[in-house]
Specification:
The complex is a heterodimer. Chain A is α/β, with parallel strands linked by helices. Chain A has a domain of 161 residues: Rossmann fold, CATH 3.40.50. Chain A has ten helices and ten strands. In chain A, the strands form two sheets. A six-stranded mixed sheet of chain A has the order 6-7-8-3-9-10, with helices on both faces. In chain A, a hairpin with a 2-residue loop joins strand 9 and strand 10. Chain A is globular, with a radius of gyration of 17 Å. The termini of chain A are far apart. By secondary structure, chain B is mainly alpha-helical. In chain B, 75% of the residues lie in helices and 3% in strands. Chain B has eleven helices and two strands. Chain B has a two-stranded antiparallel sheet with strand order 1-2. In chain B, strand 1 and strand 2 form a beta hairpin. In chain B, helix 2 packs parallel to helix 4. The longest helix of chain B has 30 residues. The chains are: A alpha/beta, B mainly alpha. Chains A and B meet through helix 2 and helix 3 of A and helix 6 and helix 7 of B. Chain A: InterPro entries: AAA+_ATPase, ABC_transporter-like_ATP-bd, ABC_transporter-like_CS, BCAA_Transport_ATP-bd_LivF, P-loop_NTPase. Chain A: This is ABC transporter ATP-binding protein. Chain A: One of its GO terms (biological process) is L-amino acid transport. Chain A: Belongs to the ABC transporter superfamily. Chain A: Pfam families: ABC_tran (PF00005).
Chain lengths: 244, 288
């Protein structure tokens, strides 16, 4: 478990309580409440425009206005984005957002935040999970392929050694071998105690790594399922995620 | 012979522009602020140089004290003013920094900036040096060397320090930088401070050539905006090349065809770049 110490009596959990979020006057989230325990993968599923990405951006303080509470291990997640990141939450955004003019090594270095714990993620871990990055350390990241850029942003987030990591559609448009590498990295992060929120259109990946599943519609959770329930109900969930 | 002399002057103007434009580029890159007050900071640097020498400070000390003093003014400006409009639409920062430029200029008018002040060249840097059959003013060679040394030092620091890595990351994508824990506010304070210090260094070093008065930075500001556009918004290496291109166009244009023709040539080039290659010389500038 990496070192984001818990206050006495607090649960190791990222908790959303009655979260509302707004862009301008448009309300996107309507009273969202759920928990992300440490060392678990919580999948947010739903059609486009239902509020999944907004949930992640609200966590990082990147929406215009929010109401309700987000707490991390009992402490309220608030203030500017960098402070939320320093509290132990990090985001892998949906459109990759590598630092294009920095090399792969520099992208990793700028994010690296050792906590001093024995199981901190290191450069070596990143290269072991994503060997392709090891071959491209001195290459400008803007010149990487889409799949390599996606690996880089996931590795970069892991090197920040967060308590919680949020991934927004990390496999969108990727070839199967890249998807498998992303799945491996999610499992590796979970095994080190990191709590993960995964927003994903691809149900097979979500089912492969997820522990909890929340289906979001119009900014509200309409159904929550455990892993066994989701596996048993996969066909119906897939249908719910398909535009008629 | 004329061409060689013009080339030296082109290098001198390019070097001054380089110091000035690097700051403009950094402030835009990290803060998305088009800083119209940068010219006033150049003037403030030049005037501070004059005040320091009037107080009896040696030239060498002035060259250090004035940039540090103006750099601290830059930190204060960012903390007290620019931070209040962070992430607001660009037009807000345009208007605010334009007002700030007028404010600084007004203050300089009240403290001796209405008249052209002469800053003497120190004895050791006076006279001319014979290079390859040409007589070149020593001070102009000195200014070019100082500008190039400062630029190389800044670039090495940007490439090799943690601060530089963070600046370059935030320059690429400020929002993502914040998601990874980069404190953009503190970073911007330091970036505006360093940029103001560079503008002041250009102002002090340029004062014996361009003289010092309240609006001496205005012409430099216009040329620097052309430099930043040619190099590509936010592109540091673009700014380095563009500064010397602009310096050469202005000096050779003035030398052979007159000042107006030089400006017309420069503005035509900038318009062509904006239309056809808006990302600048290296194609890495930002298009908003």
């Amino acid at each position: 478990m990496n070192a984001h110490a818990l206050p006495a009596g607090a649960d190791a959990v990222l908790r959303y309580e009655n979260l509302n979020a707004y862009y301008g006057t448009s309300q996107i989230l309507h009273g969202l409440s759920f928990d992300v325990p440490a060392a678990s993968v919580v999948c947010l599923l739903g059609l486009n425009g239902m509020g999944k990405t907004t949930t992640l951006r609200a966590t990082m303080g990147l929406v215009d206005r929010t109401e309700g509470r987000i707490t991390l291990n009992g402490r309220e997640v608030r203030g500017p984005t960098f402070k939320r990141s320093q509290m132990g939450v990090t985001l892998v955004p949906e459109d990759r957002k590598v630092f294009a003019n920095l090399t792969v090594a520099e992208n990793l270095e700028v994010a690296r935040r050792p906590t001093g714990a024995a199981d901190d993620f290191t450069f070596e871990d990143a290269v072991r999970i994503f060997p392709r990055l090891g071959e491209r350390m001195n290459q400008k990241s803007g010149t990487l392929s889409g799949g390599e850029q996606q690996m880089l942003v996931v590795a970069r987030a892991m090197l920040a050694n967060p308590a919680y990591m949020m991934l927004d559609e990390p496999t969108e448009g990727l070839a199967p071998n890249y998807v498998e590498a992303i799945a491996t990295s999610i499992r590796a992060a979970r095994d080190r105690g990191i709590g993960i929120i995964l927003v994903e259109q691809s149900l097979p990946l979500a089912l492969a790594v997820g522990d909890w599943f929340h289906i979001i519609e119009n900014g509200q959770i309409i159904q929550s399922l455990g892993r066994e329930e989701a596996l048993a109900d996969a066909q119906r969930i897939e249908k719910a995620l398909t535009v008629e | 012979m004329l061409a060689m002399s013009l080339a030296l002057n082109g290098v001198v103007l390019g070097s001054i522009l380089l110091l000035f434009s690097l700051g403009l580029t950094l402030i835009y890159g990290v803060g998305r602020v088009v800083n119209f007050a940068h010219g006033a900071l150049f003037s403030l640097g030049a005037m501070t140089g004059v005040w320091c020498t009037q107080l009896g400070l040696p030239f060498w000390l002035t060259l250090i004290v004035a940039p540090i003093a103006v750099g601290l003014v830059g930190v204060f400006i960012d903390w007290a003013i620019l931070a209040r409009i962070r992430d607001r639409p660009m037009v807000d920062s345009l208007l605010l920094t334009f007002g700030l430029a007028l404010l600084i200029t007004g203050i300089l008018y009240e403290f001796g900036g209405r008249t052209v002040q002469i800053m003497p060249v120190p004895g050791a840097l006076g006279g001319v040096a014979a290079v390859g059959g040409l007589s070149l003013p020593v001070y102009r060679i000195f200014v070019s060397v100082v500008a190039i040394v400062l630029t190389v030092a800044l670039i090495l620091f940007l490439q090799n320090s943690r601060w530089g890595l963070r600046v370059r990351a935030a320059n690429d994508n400020p929002e993502m930088g914040a998601c990874l824990g980069i404190d953009r506010e503190r970073l911007m304070h330091s970036v505006v401070g360093v940029s103001a210090g560079l503008a002041a260094a250009a102002g002090v070093a340029g004062a014996p050539i361009f003289t010092a008065y309240a609006t001496v930075g205005d012409k430099i500001l216009i040329l620097a905006f052309m430099t930043v556009i040619l190099g590509g918004l936010g592109s540091l290496r673009g700014a380095v090349v563009a500064a010397y291109v602009v310096g050469m166009i202005i000096v050779f244009g003035e030398g052979y065809f007159g000042g107006q023709a030089a400006l017309m040539a420069l503005f035509s080039m900038v318009m062509a770049m904006l239309i056809n290659w808006p990302r600048g010389f290296f194609g890495e500038g930002r298009v908003e």
